[in-house]
């Protein structure tokens, strides 16, 4: 069963460009992963400190593979100094 998530990041004041750089670096390699159905990261136009990743993985094994990837390890070890808040929502796709 596919897994869809929305991950929201609020950058610390003055860290918007660094968060944008770190998150943008995730897009191309994540899309190339086995089991990636959809992966995009957006920055809000009306709040430049706010970012959202929307991702769908074919199954739990694909999501586990993503979490074990080298680019995920770089992101995971680098984002916290620039991020004020992060939260994840599990989504159910209707239709």
From TrEMBL:
InterPro entries found in the cross-reference section: ABM_dom, AI-2_Isomerase_LsrG, Dimeric_a/b-barrel
Superkingdom of the source species: Bacteria
Membrane-spanning parts: none
Record keywords, A-Z: Monooxygenase, Oxidoreductase
Keyword Oxidoreductase among UniProt keywords: yes
Residue ranges occupied by any ABM domain in the UniProt entry: 3-91
One GO MF term: monooxygenase activity
PANTHER family recorded: ABM DOMAIN-CONTAINING PROTEIN, QUINOL MONOOXYGENASE YGIN-RELATED
Name assigned to this protein: Antibiotic biosynthesis monooxygenase
Organism the protein comes from: Sulfurimonas marina
